[in-house]
Design a protein that fits this description.
By secondary structure, this protein is mainly beta. The protein is about 5% helix and about 45% strand. The strands form two sheets. Strands 2, 4, 5, 7, 8 and 9 form a six-stranded mixed β-sheet that branches. It has a four-stranded parallel β-sheet with strand order 1-3-6-10, with no helix packed on it. The longest helix has 5 residues. It is globular, with a radius of gyration of 13 Å. It starts with 6 loop residues before the first strand and ends with a strand. The model has no long low-confidence stretch (mean pLDDT about 85).
Length: about 110
Amino acid sequence: VLTGGDNLDLSGLGNLAQVKTIDMATDTSANTLKLTLADVLSTASTDGVHTLALIGGDNDKVLLDEAQWMGSGDVLTQSGYTFAVFNGVNDASAQLLIHQQLLHSFH
């Protein structure tokens, strides 16, 4: 859980095996999350797919490398949240579920 305007850079962290969800929506501060395809691939897989759900408010933001991620056009509702589905460009086993209220920007 990110609170108080926290920033979290997961790029290069390495082992996120137990992480399934990152929740930035528990406060009103603007939180920022940066992650890479490798970060998502370091999470545990289910049926061969590494999925990470990102939940946030409309002032929170996730930074993604546009060379690594592509929106699938799919929308998924899970646990009361509506997510846009993003897949790894060069690795279909990586999937991001980005809460639709969360700002995302590519760099």
